[in-house]
Design goal:
alpha/beta; six-stranded mixed β-sheet; two-stranded antiparallel ribbon; 15 helices; 10 strands; globular
Length: 329
Protein backbone atom coordinates (compact mmCIF):
# COMPACT_ATOMS: atom_id res chain seq x y z
CA UNK A 1 0.00 0.00 0.00
CA UNK A 2 1.23 3.54 -0.65
CA UNK A 3 2.60 5.48 2.32
CA UNK A 4 -0.38 7.46 3.67
CA UNK A 5 0.16 11.18 4.31
CA UNK A 6 -2.49 13.15 6.22
CA UNK A 7 -2.32 16.95 5.92
CA UNK A 8 -4.01 18.71 8.83
CA UNK A 9 -5.91 21.81 7.68
CA UNK A 10 -6.41 24.33 10.49
CA UNK A 11 -8.45 27.52 10.32
CA UNK A 12 -6.35 30.43 9.07
CA UNK A 13 -4.13 28.16 6.98
CA UNK A 14 -2.02 29.35 4.04
CA UNK A 15 -3.34 27.71 0.85
CA UNK A 16 0.13 27.62 -0.70
CA UNK A 17 1.52 25.56 2.18
CA UNK A 18 -1.50 23.28 2.21
CA UNK A 19 -0.79 22.39 -1.42
CA UNK A 20 2.91 21.57 -0.97
CA UNK A 21 2.50 17.99 0.36
CA UNK A 22 -0.03 17.21 -2.37
CA UNK A 23 2.28 18.52 -5.09
CA UNK A 24 5.42 16.74 -3.85
CA UNK A 25 4.12 13.49 -2.34
CA UNK A 26 1.08 13.19 -4.59
CA UNK A 27 3.21 13.23 -7.77
CA UNK A 28 5.89 10.80 -6.53
CA UNK A 29 5.89 7.64 -8.63
CA UNK A 30 7.87 4.42 -8.65
CA UNK A 31 10.66 4.59 -11.25
CA UNK A 32 9.32 3.08 -14.46
CA UNK A 33 9.58 3.67 -18.23
CA UNK A 34 7.53 6.66 -19.30
CA UNK A 35 6.87 7.70 -15.67
CA UNK A 36 4.00 5.21 -15.46
CA UNK A 37 5.00 3.79 -12.09
CA UNK A 38 2.59 3.33 -9.19
CA UNK A 39 2.02 6.16 -6.72
CA UNK A 40 4.35 6.00 -3.75
CA UNK A 41 2.15 8.08 -1.44
CA UNK A 42 -1.54 8.55 -0.79
CA UNK A 43 -2.28 12.10 0.38
CA UNK A 44 -5.47 13.15 2.18
CA UNK A 45 -6.47 16.46 3.76
CA UNK A 46 -8.32 16.43 7.05
CA UNK A 47 -9.70 18.84 9.64
CA UNK A 48 -10.02 18.75 13.43
CA UNK A 49 -13.81 18.84 12.84
CA UNK A 50 -16.18 16.71 10.76
CA UNK A 51 -15.95 17.29 6.99
CA UNK A 52 -16.77 20.84 5.99
CA UNK A 53 -15.28 24.26 5.25
CA UNK A 54 -11.98 25.45 6.73
CA UNK A 55 -11.04 29.13 6.70
CA UNK A 56 -7.85 30.25 4.98
CA UNK A 57 -5.87 33.48 5.36
CA UNK A 58 -7.25 34.53 1.96
CA UNK A 59 -10.74 35.58 0.87
CA UNK A 60 -12.01 32.01 0.44
CA UNK A 61 -12.47 28.82 2.40
CA UNK A 62 -11.68 25.26 1.35
CA UNK A 63 -13.97 22.26 1.63
CA UNK A 64 -12.23 19.44 3.50
CA UNK A 65 -13.76 16.00 2.99
CA UNK A 66 -12.08 14.17 5.88
CA UNK A 67 -12.44 14.64 9.62
CA UNK A 68 -9.83 13.96 12.34
CA UNK A 69 -10.30 10.20 12.01
CA UNK A 70 -7.97 10.35 8.97
CA UNK A 71 -5.11 11.05 11.37
CA UNK A 72 -5.50 7.58 12.86
CA UNK A 73 -4.63 5.93 9.54
CA UNK A 74 -1.65 8.14 8.63
CA UNK A 75 1.95 7.03 8.30
CA UNK A 76 3.02 10.69 8.12
CA UNK A 77 1.14 13.74 9.42
CA UNK A 78 1.96 17.17 7.94
CA UNK A 79 0.88 20.35 9.75
CA UNK A 80 1.12 23.52 7.62
CA UNK A 81 1.16 27.00 9.15
CA UNK A 82 -1.95 28.80 10.33
CA UNK A 83 -2.58 32.42 11.31
CA UNK A 84 -5.34 31.45 13.72
CA UNK A 85 -3.56 29.19 16.22
CA UNK A 86 -4.93 31.14 19.19
CA UNK A 87 -3.72 29.67 22.52
CA UNK A 88 -1.21 27.49 20.67
CA UNK A 89 0.66 30.59 19.49
CA UNK A 90 -0.10 32.81 22.47
CA UNK A 91 0.24 30.41 25.40
CA UNK A 92 1.85 27.26 24.00
CA UNK A 93 -1.15 25.04 24.73
CA UNK A 94 -3.50 23.05 22.52
CA UNK A 95 -7.21 23.69 22.28
CA UNK A 96 -9.41 20.78 23.37
CA UNK A 97 -10.48 20.24 19.77
CA UNK A 98 -6.90 20.10 18.48
CA UNK A 99 -5.70 17.92 21.37
CA UNK A 100 -8.49 15.43 20.73
CA UNK A 101 -7.59 15.25 17.05
CA UNK A 102 -3.86 14.75 17.69
CA UNK A 103 -4.64 12.04 20.25
CA UNK A 104 -5.89 9.88 17.36
CA UNK A 105 -2.41 9.69 15.81
CA UNK A 106 -0.78 6.29 16.20
CA UNK A 107 2.53 5.98 18.08
CA UNK A 108 5.46 5.97 15.66
CA UNK A 109 3.71 8.11 13.06
CA UNK A 110 6.12 10.51 11.35
CA UNK A 111 5.31 14.12 12.28
CA UNK A 112 6.14 17.03 9.98
CA UNK A 113 5.55 20.78 10.27
CA UNK A 114 5.79 23.55 7.69
CA UNK A 115 6.66 27.05 8.92
CA UNK A 116 4.80 27.91 12.15
CA UNK A 117 3.04 24.56 12.11
CA UNK A 118 5.94 23.77 14.47
CA UNK A 119 3.97 25.54 17.24
CA UNK A 120 1.42 22.73 17.13
CA UNK A 121 4.12 20.05 17.38
CA UNK A 122 5.77 21.88 20.28
CA UNK A 123 2.51 22.44 22.16
CA UNK A 124 1.73 18.73 21.76
CA UNK A 125 5.11 17.78 23.26
CA UNK A 126 6.60 16.25 20.11
CA UNK A 127 9.59 18.62 20.19
CA UNK A 128 10.53 18.39 23.87
CA UNK A 129 14.31 18.12 24.14
CA UNK A 130 14.68 17.95 20.37
CA UNK A 131 16.12 20.25 17.69
CA UNK A 132 13.59 22.14 15.60
CA UNK A 133 13.20 25.15 13.35
CA UNK A 134 10.45 27.53 12.29
CA UNK A 135 10.17 30.75 10.31
CA UNK A 136 13.09 33.02 11.25
CA UNK A 137 10.76 35.89 12.21
CA UNK A 138 9.07 33.69 14.84
CA UNK A 139 12.19 31.95 16.15
CA UNK A 140 12.71 34.15 19.23
CA UNK A 141 9.05 33.99 20.24
CA UNK A 142 9.02 30.23 19.61
CA UNK A 143 12.07 29.71 21.84
CA UNK A 144 10.62 31.82 24.65
CA UNK A 145 7.30 29.97 24.49
CA UNK A 146 8.93 26.53 24.32
CA UNK A 147 12.28 26.71 26.19
CA UNK A 148 12.48 22.90 26.19
CA UNK A 149 12.96 22.91 22.39
CA UNK A 150 16.43 23.40 20.85
CA UNK A 151 15.60 26.00 18.20
CA UNK A 152 17.88 26.56 15.20
CA UNK A 153 16.65 29.63 13.26
CA UNK A 154 19.27 29.42 10.51
CA UNK A 155 18.43 26.17 8.72
CA UNK A 156 15.81 25.43 6.06
CA UNK A 157 14.64 22.25 7.81
CA UNK A 158 15.63 19.78 10.52
CA UNK A 159 15.29 16.01 10.20
CA UNK A 160 15.25 14.44 13.66
CA UNK A 161 14.12 11.02 12.53
CA UNK A 162 10.41 10.69 13.21
CA UNK A 163 9.86 14.42 13.76
CA UNK A 164 10.79 16.98 11.09
CA UNK A 165 10.33 20.75 11.05
CA UNK A 166 10.85 23.30 8.29
CA UNK A 167 11.28 27.05 8.01
CA UNK A 168 8.85 29.36 6.25
CA UNK A 169 6.72 28.56 3.21
CA UNK A 170 9.05 27.39 0.40
CA UNK A 171 11.21 25.50 2.91
CA UNK A 172 8.25 23.15 3.11
CA UNK A 173 9.06 22.15 -0.47
CA UNK A 174 12.67 21.49 0.56
CA UNK A 175 11.54 19.32 3.45
CA UNK A 176 9.01 17.31 1.43
CA UNK A 177 11.60 16.68 -1.30
CA UNK A 178 14.04 15.60 1.41
CA UNK A 179 11.49 13.09 2.70
CA UNK A 180 10.95 11.66 -0.77
CA UNK A 181 14.74 11.43 -1.15
CA UNK A 182 15.02 9.73 2.24
CA UNK A 183 12.20 7.29 1.48
CA UNK A 184 12.94 6.46 -2.16
CA UNK A 185 16.28 7.92 -3.19
CA UNK A 186 17.59 10.92 -5.09
CA UNK A 187 16.38 9.80 -8.52
CA UNK A 188 12.69 9.92 -7.50
CA UNK A 189 13.12 13.22 -5.63
CA UNK A 190 15.01 14.80 -8.51
CA UNK A 191 12.28 13.84 -10.97
CA UNK A 192 9.63 15.47 -8.76
CA UNK A 193 11.81 18.59 -8.45
CA UNK A 194 12.17 18.80 -12.23
CA UNK A 195 8.43 18.50 -12.74
CA UNK A 196 7.79 21.10 -10.04
CA UNK A 197 10.48 23.37 -11.57
CA UNK A 198 12.35 23.79 -8.26
CA UNK A 199 15.92 22.85 -7.29
CA UNK A 200 16.15 19.36 -5.81
CA UNK A 201 18.37 20.73 -3.05
CA UNK A 202 18.83 24.35 -1.99
CA UNK A 203 22.09 25.49 -0.51
CA UNK A 204 22.50 27.33 2.77
CA UNK A 205 19.88 28.17 5.34
CA UNK A 206 17.48 30.90 6.43
CA UNK A 207 20.33 33.28 7.25
CA UNK A 208 20.63 34.22 3.60
CA UNK A 209 17.01 35.46 3.57
CA UNK A 210 16.80 37.48 6.75
CA UNK A 211 18.48 40.72 5.74
CA UNK A 212 18.87 40.59 1.96
CA UNK A 213 16.68 37.99 0.25
CA UNK A 214 17.90 38.85 -3.26
CA UNK A 215 21.33 40.34 -4.09
CA UNK A 216 21.05 43.94 -5.20
CA UNK A 217 21.30 44.19 -9.01
CA UNK A 218 24.31 46.49 -8.88
CA UNK A 219 26.37 43.85 -7.09
CA UNK A 220 28.17 41.01 -8.86
CA UNK A 221 27.09 37.49 -7.87
CA UNK A 222 28.89 34.17 -7.51
CA UNK A 223 26.59 32.27 -9.87
CA UNK A 224 29.17 31.76 -12.61
CA UNK A 225 31.73 30.42 -10.15
CA UNK A 226 29.25 27.90 -8.81
CA UNK A 227 28.32 26.74 -12.30
CA UNK A 228 32.03 26.43 -13.16
CA UNK A 229 32.68 24.38 -10.03
CA UNK A 230 29.72 22.06 -10.63
CA UNK A 231 31.17 21.20 -14.03
CA UNK A 232 34.44 19.99 -12.53
CA UNK A 233 33.61 18.44 -9.16
CA UNK A 234 35.83 15.46 -10.00
CA UNK A 235 38.91 17.71 -10.07
CA UNK A 236 40.68 19.78 -7.40
CA UNK A 237 39.05 23.18 -6.96
CA UNK A 238 40.87 25.98 -5.22
CA UNK A 239 39.17 28.97 -3.66
CA UNK A 240 41.32 31.35 -5.69
CA UNK A 241 40.21 29.62 -8.91
CA UNK A 242 36.55 30.13 -8.01
CA UNK A 243 37.20 33.78 -7.16
CA UNK A 244 38.98 34.22 -10.49
CA UNK A 245 35.80 33.18 -12.34
CA UNK A 246 34.12 36.30 -10.95
CA UNK A 247 37.20 38.55 -11.18
CA UNK A 248 37.11 39.07 -7.42
CA UNK A 249 39.67 38.91 -4.68
CA UNK A 250 39.47 35.79 -2.52
CA UNK A 251 38.31 37.87 0.44
CA UNK A 252 35.53 39.62 -1.48
CA UNK A 253 34.45 36.40 -3.18
CA UNK A 254 34.25 34.51 0.14
CA UNK A 255 32.16 37.24 1.74
CA UNK A 256 29.83 37.54 -1.24
CA UNK A 257 29.49 33.75 -1.54
CA UNK A 258 28.45 33.39 2.10
CA UNK A 259 25.94 36.23 1.74
CA UNK A 260 24.30 34.60 -1.27
CA UNK A 261 24.49 30.93 -0.38
CA UNK A 262 24.50 30.90 3.43
CA UNK A 263 27.60 28.68 3.56
CA UNK A 264 31.30 29.02 2.86
CA UNK A 265 32.66 27.93 -0.56
CA UNK A 266 34.29 24.91 1.08
CA UNK A 267 31.08 23.82 2.79
CA UNK A 268 29.14 24.26 -0.43
CA UNK A 269 31.64 22.20 -2.43
CA UNK A 270 31.41 19.38 0.09
CA UNK A 271 27.60 19.44 -0.10
CA UNK A 272 27.68 19.24 -3.89
CA UNK A 273 30.18 16.38 -3.84
CA UNK A 274 28.07 14.46 -1.36
CA UNK A 275 25.06 14.91 -3.66
CA UNK A 276 27.11 13.73 -6.65
CA UNK A 277 28.26 10.67 -4.70
CA UNK A 278 24.69 9.85 -3.66
CA UNK A 279 23.53 10.01 -7.24
CA UNK A 280 26.34 7.75 -8.45
CA UNK A 281 25.80 5.24 -5.64
CA UNK A 282 22.10 5.00 -6.48
CA UNK A 283 22.26 4.97 -10.27
CA UNK A 284 25.56 3.34 -11.26
CA UNK A 285 27.59 0.19 -10.70
CA UNK A 286 30.84 2.11 -10.25
CA UNK A 287 33.15 0.89 -7.52
CA UNK A 288 33.34 2.92 -4.30
CA UNK A 289 36.83 4.05 -5.31
CA UNK A 290 35.54 5.31 -8.68
CA UNK A 291 32.57 7.05 -7.07
CA UNK A 292 34.99 8.78 -4.71
CA UNK A 293 37.12 9.98 -7.63
CA UNK A 294 34.17 11.09 -9.78
CA UNK A 295 32.61 13.00 -6.88
CA UNK A 296 35.88 14.76 -6.11
CA UNK A 297 36.70 13.10 -2.80
CA UNK A 298 39.76 11.37 -4.21
CA UNK A 299 39.77 8.26 -2.05
CA UNK A 300 37.20 5.82 -0.71
CA UNK A 301 38.31 6.72 2.81
CA UNK A 302 37.55 10.40 2.26
CA UNK A 303 34.18 9.56 0.68
CA UNK A 304 33.33 7.31 3.59
CA UNK A 305 34.16 10.02 6.13
CA UNK A 306 32.12 12.70 4.37
CA UNK A 307 29.10 10.48 3.70
CA UNK A 308 29.12 9.26 7.28
CA UNK A 309 29.21 12.86 8.53
CA UNK A 310 26.45 14.03 6.17
CA UNK A 311 24.09 11.03 6.17
CA UNK A 312 25.13 8.85 9.07
CA UNK A 313 25.89 5.81 6.90
CA UNK A 314 28.92 4.60 4.87
CA UNK A 315 28.74 4.35 1.05
CA UNK A 316 28.15 0.59 0.91
CA UNK A 317 25.20 0.75 3.30
CA UNK A 318 23.73 3.75 1.46
CA UNK A 319 23.97 1.96 -1.90
CA UNK A 320 22.50 -1.26 -0.53
CA UNK A 321 19.59 0.60 1.09
CA UNK A 322 18.51 2.55 -1.98
CA UNK A 323 19.26 -0.19 -4.48
CA UNK A 324 17.00 -2.49 -2.44
CA UNK A 325 14.29 0.18 -2.37
CA UNK A 326 14.49 0.69 -6.13
CA UNK A 327 14.48 -3.02 -6.95
CA UNK A 328 11.59 -3.99 -4.64
CA UNK A 329 8.34 -4.29 -6.65
Amino acid sequence: MPHRVAVLALDGLLPFELGIPHRIFGRSLEPAPGNKGAKLYEVVTCSVRPPGPVRTDSDYAILVEHGPEALATADTVVIPASYELGPVFEEGRLTEELAAALALIRPGTRMVSICTGSYVLAAAGYLDGRPATTHWSSADHFQQLFPQVRVDPDVLFIDDGDVLTSAGVAAGIDLCLHLVRRDHGAAVANEIARRTVVPPHRDGGQAQYIHRPVPEPQFATTTAARAWALGRLDRPIQLRDMARQESMSVRTFTRRFREEVGASPGQWLTQQRVERARHLLETSDLSIDQVARDAGFGTATSLRQHLQAALGVPPTVYRRTFRASAETP
